[in-house]
From TrEMBL:
Family: Belongs to the cytochrome P450 family.
Gene Ontology molecular function: heme binding; iron ion binding; monooxygenase activity; oxidoreductase activity, acting on paired donors, with incorporation or reduction of molecular oxygen
Source organism of this protein record: Kibdelosporangium aridum
Gene3D superfamilies cross-referenced by the UniProt entry: Cytochrome P450
Listed InterPro entries: Cyt_P450, Cyt_P450_B, Cyt_P450_CS, Cyt_P450_sf
Protein name (Swiss-Prot/TrEMBL): Cytochrome P450
Keywords: Heme, Iron, Metal-binding, Monooxygenase, Oxidoreductase
Amino acid sequence: MTTSDSKPDPFALLQEPSVRADPYPLYHLLREQCPILIEDGPLALVGSYEHSQQVLRDPAMSSRLQDLMPGVGRPDTDPPFLLLDPPDHTRLRGLVSQAFTPRAIAVLAPRITEIVENALAEAAERGSIDIVADLAYPLPVTIISEWLGVPTSDGESLREWSQLLTRTFDLNVGSDERDEIARAAKDFDEYFRDLIAFRRRTPGDDLLSQLISVEERGDRLTSAELLATVGLLLVAGHETTTNLISNGLLALLRHPDELARLRADPGLTDAAVEESLRYDPSVQLVGRVTKEPTTVGTLPVPANTWTILLIGAANRDPARYPEPDRFRLDRDSVPHLAFSYGPHFCIGSSLARLEAGIAFRTFASTVVNPELDADTLSYRRHVNFRGPDRMIVSFDAAR
């Protein structure tokens, strides 16, 4: 199916404040029309689970969005392996994955638990918590910063840089904002160039030192590759986990029977994490570019076409999930696309799952009679990275 500029622009619709709060009715409508080719793009939209999975494993599809859209990604730096194709992607992912072993991730569990318990204990004294500011943001940024060996005192700078740099992966970035993003990227790069140089001279037991020392068949990450990788881990990694925790706790609060089930049976923690990822994914859109003509379903897609997967629509595809708009912890274990699929499956998925699982389980066991203040619930202006920016919950502490 093709469309033209006489049709409503789906990206303009997704940026509407009312749609940002709940984009899923629009996703359902778009999925019924997809796959579609917007002729003046050239742009293809893909909405179903089947077609999205097909695109993610199609060798004709490239992750090098910056080749077609130079504004994508961080300005004036090497692209992270997220925006590379084999063999470059294969090489860099293989090197970085050596630091993301199950043992390395598991070691972080006690510190994650400590941060969550402390945040909820402090909130209990007040009788309320801002889920985003007090828990969902500080948890992953503290963990990744400490793991990288970044001093805690520099956390506020990292937050400011991160909030701007994540905008490079969104749809509605104006020229004025790009100037701010460029300054943030410059400051970020200068900071981490100095830290990388220091860790080359004085290695520690942190992740940055591990990435510097990683070696496979004589291969190493160059300084530019290290810088791009650190940017990806710090910016994309913690932002998506923040949204996972916020979106998941919001879903549990809006479905008190499911929250009660989790409280009664902590063994449902993994199910709560996976259902949160499916029901309201942190990353709503994934882009690819066609290196050569291909077909999505029965739709011919020309070369050099920007292809957008509506992950929020695919994860609620009724052809894949019964009652897709219901949040339920007893759902059959059907894979979702929240962490992508195939060679670009999220390298940080184990850490994100661990952090969210501890946050959900501890919240359920600690918080009694939670009540969401709906008037305080507001969403970030991102279309791609979806999550609240404020979310106040009052509660009683468990005794």
